[in-house]
From TrEMBL:
Organism lineage string: Eukaryota, Metazoa, Ecdysozoa, Arthropoda, Hexapoda
Family matches, as InterPro entries: PDCD2_C (IPR007320), Znf_MYND (IPR002893)
Protein keywords: Metal-binding, Zinc, Zinc-finger
Annotated source species: Timema podura
Name this polypeptide is given: MYND-type domain-containing protein
Disordered: region residues: 200-230
Length: 356
């Protein structure tokens, strides 16, 4: 991940990608979505993964490997995000249903080689948290309790023990087949998260090259103009209580309708225009930069760290990640309605500037 100065910023954008499972192990310092966490500090794993709204365990959403190589204590550095899968806990401008953790290690540490990893399935396969701690068979968090009958499978709490029992452990308990297992449909689908520099042409660049506008650029401009017209028209219809005529019209972008009528129309148009320059990306990394706000109505003041009082700085945002990742789970999780769904325009992550 790039760390840039504000005068010459390079934003990294992330895409989800299918890959072989072994590449997502802790020894390769992955950025990933779904599955179980690939822990960085293999002996010190957080155990407070419960939603602040409902008290139930959160599911692993994603992790971003973001080292700061010129800071000794941050040579290896990963940020982990967990989310409650209950749609009732998902509320506007609230992070109560999320858990975010930052972990960092020196280059010389007790787990990983001083030299870069070798991209082979057979390279140091024992370097994983399971060799240092007992982990929950369902979610991969610290497993502080175990099945009282077979004593072979560990869990983070009663909720996941019950879930695993119903999912099939009752059929294998106390047998030679009793082992750690993933409960179907509970974990999110697992993908690699790969990043590359953003392909971005600023508005100023468009103006400078106006005399040499290509056919493709003309089409982009026409698309943006059409989208802006659509947004203004929908706002007018909302004010006149005639917006219903758009219902069922698949040509109107769903997100456009969600944002229309807000005070942040211009902000949203800028957001949408820039997002579309890199189609399909689900993450934007710009440590120390500025987030790409979805709407001016949702811009918020970021409070300082409650532990040390230091100011927080923007690090990355996950844009429409839920749509990319959860689409195959909506039926299983009961999240396939507009009224009850885990959804957000963008998820912003801020971290403390100090790295002690």
């Amino acid at each position: 991940m790039a760390v840039n100065n504000k005068h010459d910023r390079i934003v990294d954008v992330g895409y989800i990608n299918s890959c072989v499972e072994w590449r997502l192990g802790s020894r390769f310092f992955p950025s990933k979505v779904g599955g179980k966490p690939a822990w960085l500090d293999l002996k010190h794993i957080p155990d407070n993964l419960k939603c602040k709204e409902c008290g139930k365990p959160c599911v692993f959403l994603c992790q971003v490997y973001a080292p700061i190589e010129d800071v000794e204590s941050c040579f290896h550095r990963t940020i982990f995000i967990f989310v409650c899968r209950d749609p009732i806990c998902c509320k506007e401008n609230s992070s109560a249903n999320f858990k975010v953790f930052r972990c960092q290690l020196k280059r010389r540490n007790n787990y990983f080689s001083f030299n870069p990893p070798i991209e082979k399935a057979t390279w140091q396969p024992d370097v994983r948290a399971e060799h240092f701690l007992k982990l929950c068979a369902v979610c991969g968090a610290r497993g502080q309790s175990h099945c009282g009958k077979c004593r072979k499978v560990n869990y983070c709490g009663r909720e996941h023990q019950t879930l695993d029992w119903k999912a099939g452990h009752r059929n294998t308990c106390a047998s030679d087949k009793a082992s750690d297992r993933v409960v179907p449909h509970w974990l999110l689908p697992e993908f690699e998260l790969i990043t590359q520099p953003e392909d971005y042409e600023s508005e100023g660049t468009h103006e400078d090259n106006e005399s040499n506008t290509s056919e493709g650029t003309q089409e982009d401009n026409e698309s943006n103009t059409s989208e802006e017209t659509q947004l203004r028209e929908y706002k007018r219809l909302v004010q006149e209580n005639k917006a219903g005529m758009f219902h069922g019209d698949t040509s109107v972008d769903e997100h456009l309708l969600n944002m229309a009528g807000s005070e942040g129309d211009d902000v949203f148009l800028h957001y949408n225009s820039r997002i579309k320059q890199n189609p399909g990306h689900v993450l934007r990394y710009d440590r120390g930069g500025e987030p790409l706000w979805v709407s001016g109505a949702h811009v918020m003041e970021v409070p300082p760290c409650p532990n040390c009082g230091a100011p927080r700085v923007f690090e990355f945002q996950a844009s429409d990640l839920v749509i990319q990742v959860l689409s195959t789970l909506l039926n299983h999780l009961g999240l396939d309605t507009v009224e009850k769904s885990i959804d957000w325009g963008t998820l912003l992550v801020y971290t403390v500037r100090g790295q002690l």
